[in-house]
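Reminder to self: tokens first, then the designed residues, so the page reads top to bottom the way the pipeline ran.
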């Protein structure tokens, strides 16, 4: 198993919208080889927290580090290039392109321009060997080898979620922020996604925002529960499941 090296941390992270604290004094660590799930009712601040960590929203206060680098206030593009990959609740793909072209475009975003050809003119994308290799590896990791030439818009909902993750993987991130990757899936698709995430955690630190409690308790190594923007518990899944306060606020007796 991978060691517990910390790849991303947040300390005292807060986001206020006027008088409302959507995220209030949240601290967490994301470790290599582990999935840290964040759960809570609608409006708990889970997606806002993910948006803060990815740079989509600037924090009102608090501090974030990626590796040993303070990334507080960085743009999403800069954070992404430093090693963070993000998927969103709404699938973001190029529906008229093939699965392969979607992933290759994501890999191509990491190409550094040459000082002699800063805009990359007159160079066919298909001839970029390093780009193709990253795209190929991402498609393999996501389990989409047999769907590579299919138009993205013609794939199933579950495959489109796999494709979005493949596009994220093509940027070679160390940390993955996944916002409800199982949303809207049937049982078979959800099971494939669970197996994919278990494979991915071996080489990444993963923050998982998810409402599917069966998947959460199958996947999570660490579990944080948020209510009204605040953390009410953060521990192992077994400890959180047994927490009377969490049961009363969110999980209910069935869990």
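Designed residues (255 positions):
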């Amino acid at each position: 198993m991978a060691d517990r090296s910390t790849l991303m941390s947040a300390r005292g992270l807060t986001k206020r919208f006027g008088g409302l604290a959507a995220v209030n004094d949240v601290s967490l660590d994301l470790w290599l080889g582990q999935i840290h799930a964040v759960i809570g009712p609608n409006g708990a601040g889970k997606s806002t927290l993910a948006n803060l960590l990815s740079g989509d929203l600037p924090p009102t206060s608090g501090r974030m580090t990626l590796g040993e680098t303070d990334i507080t206030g960085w743009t999403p593009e800069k954070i992404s290039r430093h090693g963070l990959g993000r998927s969103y609740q709404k699938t973001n793909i190029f529906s008229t392109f093939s699965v392969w072209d979607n992933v290759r475009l994501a890999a191509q975003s990491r190409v550094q321009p040459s000082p002699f050809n800063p805009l990359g003119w007159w160079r066919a994308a298909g001839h970029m060997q390093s780009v193709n290799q990253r795209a190929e590896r991402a498609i393999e990791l996501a389990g989409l080898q047999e769907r590579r030439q299919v138009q993205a818009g013609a794939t199933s909902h579950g495959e489109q979620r796999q494709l979005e993750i493949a596009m994220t993987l093509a940027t070679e991130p160390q940390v993955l922020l996944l916002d409800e990757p199982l949303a809207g899936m049937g049982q078979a698709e959800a099971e494939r996604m669970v197996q994919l995430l278990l494979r991915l955690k071996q080489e990444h630190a993963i923050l998982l925002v998810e409402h599917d409690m069966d998947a959460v308790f199958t996947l999570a190594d660490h579990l944080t529960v948020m209510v009204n923007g605040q953390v009410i518990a953060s521990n192992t899944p077994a400890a959180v499941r047994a927490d009377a306060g969490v049961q009363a606020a969110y999980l209910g007796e069935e869990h």
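DSSP finds nine helices and ten strands in the chain.
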